[in-house]
Every structure is written in C-alpha cells, then in structure tokens.
Amino acid sequence: MLVLLAIPVFGRATPVSLSRQDKRNGLIYSQTITADVDFNSSFFKKYRPIQKHINLQVDFPEAVIFHQAKDEKGVIEFQKKYSTNRFGFRKTAVRENAHQRLIIAGDSNTFGIGCNDDETLSYFLEQKLPETQIENLGLAGSGPNSLLYFLQHYSLAEVEPTVKDTLMLYDFSEYLIERMIGGKNFIRWGWMQPSYELQGSELHYAGTFNEQWITKFYKVINFIDPKNFLFPNLPRIHDHHYQLVARIFLEIKKLFLQQTKMTNRFAVLIHPFTLNEQNRPVVKRVEEELKKLGIETIRFDESTAINYISIYPRDLHMKPNGQHYYAGLIAQKVQNIFASE
To answer: Which of 111, 249, 253, 302 could cross-link 140 (Cys pair, CB 3.0–4.6 Å)?
Structure first.
C-alpha cells in the first residue's frame, strides 16, 4: 500500500509525505517519508530514476523517515527515525578538520534499518574515530551491484568533496551474492535493481533484473511456492557467479580510486555474522576470486561473530547494540590501517 501527498509548485521546494505498508517475515512494516522536494530541479530529475533502482527505502533526497515493524498482535519489533542526505544515504557529521576519511558501504545493516540516527554503524564509528570523517554509503535492500550503479552515475566528489586520504570498506555478507546475480528470493523485491554480466573478461551493464527472462520464471515460481518449500535456492551458485561478484567489486574499486585519489585504499570487509560453518566455504570462494583481482579483504576472528542477541529476532537486522559492537571491531582495524600508512 502506497500513499503520496504533495502539490508540486514550479520552482519551489514542496513539502511531500509518502506512506507505505507491507508484510514480510511475519511483521507489518509501516514507513512514512517526509521531505521538501523541488520536483522540477535537475537534481531531483536525475535522483529519482537512479534511486528507484538502488535504494528501496529512500524515495526523496534529504528525507526524514519514520519506520515501524510490528507483528499482527501489535507487538513492536522496532520504531525508529532515519535522516538522509541529498543522495539518500544516512546523514553523518561534517568534520572540516578531519585528518582522514572512512567510507563504509554496504546494505541495509550499514544504512541502519532498525536504528535511530544515533544508533547506526556510522554514528558509532564517529564516536570511536574522532579525527576521521565518516561517510555512510549503505543502500537498503541492495547489494554491491547497486553501489556500482550509483558510482557510474554520480561521483564521490559530489558526495563529499575532499582531498583527504580515504579508506573505503564494503561490508560484505554471503547473502549479497544472491542480490548480485538476481536470485529467486531477491527478485521478490529487487527486480528493478541493476544487473551486470561478464562478456569474456569484461563487465557489462545488462539493464534491470526485470528485463531478463529468468526473472519472469522466478516470479512464477515465487507465486506458486511463496514459502520456498519446492525450490528454496535458485540459482545454484557456480564459479562464474563468484567471478561476477569479484568483477563488480573490481569496478567499484576502480571508480572509487578515479573519483578520489589513486593512492587511496579499498577493501572488502567480511561481516562477522557471515563467519559460521555453513557460510565459510562460500566466503572462502569469494575471497579467492577477490585475491585474483588484487582486491584486499579484511576479516575478523570467528570468535568475534555477532550473535543473535544483537539481531532483531524476526526482522534480522542488527540492533543498536550490534551496531555498536561491530563499530568497535571496525574501528580497531581502521586505526591500524591509518597508522601503518
């Protein structure tokens, strides 16, 4: 269900409010987005077509989002407020005198679904790294392919113009592979997201997943089997999928360096929640392919794995205490990296 209230006025920012509601994971999600939007501005005319493919939670730039998740009995899982910048990312503090910059990119956990502005990963990193400018490039409901699409249409210099030494970390979990290849379960909500394919050794944009015949097949399967009893995981992950994942990260790295400084550093961060017996072989294959392309990976000792106490039990996003714990792990790695350079 979607409700939009706005009366566009030419040449002026218009107060806009959008409400939506959907059900999944046994929860009812309600979201209200408010913003002042100049619908006729060249920035918004560029923003909207791009954002609808990559950031499912943020329809308008510089928005305030009220987000609630509750079960059918009315028991609230979370009720939070998000503030975003002009590119649809979570707002972070501007530190004019920062010595260096950290860009933390990722999915909805990085964005901070289920966390207020002072409960996100980027907020806690700001507290732990007071001399570092933090930028949050988390895209809710998306994967690395969506970040690549963003970098192909915008420059990081537009997000935060700077010549500071910059470290960019992408927070990777194994389930993001499905989002990068357009898997059956991801297609339930991600059919409009960008698709890439390898043609020989070259990576090419292939439109949205919705333009592919396999997506139409997956939609039929999802309709017939909504609870995944018959076909829980499609497609099966093969070598060419791992190669595609690695090439997408290579293109992200190239654009990051071109848009900032070639002496900057990019690495893929292996999320501690991924470090378990079931996912270990998948993560290992991703690391092998990334290594072949000269992409650095950073992982944590398996004893640091984030436990279920730090995860919303039905929504499955990290709670604020999980974000705080993870920020501490990342901050230690970042301090060591900057100290060694």
So the answer is: 111
CA-to-CA distance for 122 and 118, rounded, in angstroms?
9
pLDDT digits (tens, 9 = 90+) for 175-204: 999 999 999 999 998 999 999 999 988 999
Token code pair at residue 198: 């390898």
The CATH number of 89-339 is 3.40.50.1110
- Under a CB-based contact definition with an 8 Å cutoff, are residues 281 and 181 in contact? no
Listed residue (333, 250, 335, 238) closest to 290, CA to CA: 250
Using CA of residue 315, residue 320, residue 134, residue 100, what is the dihedral sign?
negative
How far apart are alpha carbons 338 and 341 in whole angstroms? 5
pLDDT digits (tens, 9 = 90+) for 240-280: 999 999 999 999 999 999 999 889 999 999 987 766 777 88
pTM over 0.85? The answer is yes
CA distance 308 to 319: 10
Q: Tokens for 57, please give them.
A: 């939670």
Assigned token pair, 100: 């260096």
Nearest to 236 by CA among 298, 151, 296, 177: 177
Domain ranges for the chain, please list them. Answer: 1-88, 89-339
